Description:
The protein is an all-alpha fold. The chain has 5 helices and no strands. This is Putative membrane protein.
Amino acid sequence: MKSRTRKILKWFLVVIFMLFIFYMSSREGDKSTGDSSAVINLIKLYLGIDLDMISNGNASFIVRKTAHATEYLILFLLVYMAVKEYENVERKILLSLIITICYSISDEVHQYFVPGREMRIFDVMIDSIGASIGAILLKIKDRLKKIHL
Length: 149
């Protein structure tokens, strides 16, 4: 695949994933709560984990915040793969973190206008933790690569 086509494809994946996050954030509060309940039921059914010992509100909270962190971990990794103008790993990581966290902030502002949803700084922090986990994993990978060379 040509280099230009590859670059376009990588940024296309970033945009598609951002649109997915936007779509999920556009869902009204009741629908979003229903999604969390469905995930809890799937965990009970397929993983055999008894979430009944956790009150339903806490289980929903854990599912929602884990989803936030996971979404932004994935977004960070996609942005990192798309950012190729820097050879320096630290610069790519920093630029990817900035883009991901800025998108998280814009997503929370967007949720302010969605019925039944709220803008929460706490969610930006959870999203940033997800992106930071991605950054830490990439830094570890880079160090291991240098050790084995």
